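## retry 2 of 3
previous attempt timed out at serialization; input unchanged, resubmitting
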Amino acid sequence: MAREVEGKRTAPGALALLSKYKYVMIVLLAGIVCLAWPSKDQAAPGIEAPSAVPASERQEILQLQQEMEDILGKMQGVGELRLMLTLDQGSSKALAQDASLNYSGTPAAPEDYSRSASTVVVSKSGSGESVVVLHETYPQFRGALVVCQGGGDPAVRLAVIEAVSALTGLGSDKISVVKWQS
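## retry succeeded, writing output
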């Protein structure tokens, strides 16, 4: 019971079905285009986006890197080394806030409203005031590169990868250990 449309055989309900859901198809295609469209946050492959890490946090990461270099350098067979850590996300803190909403009119249809919020501060005896931290996230590392004199030895590579993984939480696929240039 198929009919021919311009030389093609189609099911009789296919055109009716397509006509019925044409707006759904348009929205679906628009969504696919939006997902495929590159955003400002996506950098070209191999190009790092500029770091938006605050100076104090950058200093902490550099200090951590230096401490890790010192410890890893003391491992047997490693020798002289350099370590580079890259961040996927910096640390952040969510502070407690006291918020209030004031409106005039009825709750269902307010005529005018205003919202105010202030950070909750707690007084400490003798040491001033401090904010209340609700949630704190620590830096998440993207990867690590270790260049060391013993990087050519598989046993040394494995030991360094395990140590860096234990200290940073990175998987072994995100840690690269290479031999120091002679």
